[in-house]
UniProtKB/TrEMBL annotation:
Keywords: DNA-directed RNA polymerase, Metal-binding, Nucleus, Transcription, Zinc, Zinc-finger. It comes from Tetrahymena thermophila (strain SB210). DNA-dependent RNA polymerase catalyzes the transcription of DNA into RNA using the four ribonucleoside triphosphates as substrates. GO terms for biological process: termination of RNA polymerase III transcription. Zn(2+) 2 binds at C69, C72, C97, C100. A zinc finger (C4-type) spans 4-27. Belongs to the archaeal rpoM/eukaryotic RPA12/RPB9/RPC11 RNA polymerase family. PANTHER family: DNA-DIRECTED RNA POLYMERASE, DNA-DIRECTED RNA POLYMERASE III SUBUNIT RPC10. One of its GO terms (cellular component) is RNA polymerase III complex. Residues 65-105 form the TFIIS-type domain. This is DNA-directed RNA polymerase subunit. Its main location: nucleus. The keyword Zinc-finger applies. GO terms for molecular function: DNA-directed RNA polymerase activity; nucleic acid binding; zinc ion binding.
Length: 108
């Protein structure tokens, strides 16, 4: 995005007489575009669903002593909260069993 050097408003692209130019909507400033410049940038987000080794993080994780592990059926799990979905939906609770290190999640 380009801004007007005179009034600092955003410039728009305008076609005047077959020629493109940056124009300010507020003042009379314009800048002719003499050549076509095209830049395309693609960003790629990769979601990491793996739960990393928690042995170094145990002190910072919350615990739920009443949560029952679906794998070993024993009580006790570490909880990690994450906002996986849009903000108007609840956080996802990732559980890690204290006994067998099995991981599962509750979409909340």
């Amino acid at each position: 995005m380009n801004f007007c050097p005179l009034c600092a408003n955003a410039l728009i692209i305008q076609n005047v007489g077959g020629n493109n130019r940056f124009s300010c909507r507020t003042c009379t400033y314009f800048y002719p575009l003499l050549k076509k410049i095209e830049t395309v940038t693609y960003s790629r987000m990769v979601k990491d669903d793996t739960i990393h080794d928690i042995s170094l993080q145990k002190e910072s994780l919350q615990t739920d002593k009443d949560m029952i592990c679906p794998a070993c059926e024993k009580r006790g799990a570490y909880i990690r909260l994450e906002q996986d979905r849009s903000l108007d939906e609840g956080q996802t609770q990732h559980y890690i069993c204290k006994n067998c290190s099995h991981t599962w999640k509750d979409m909340g």
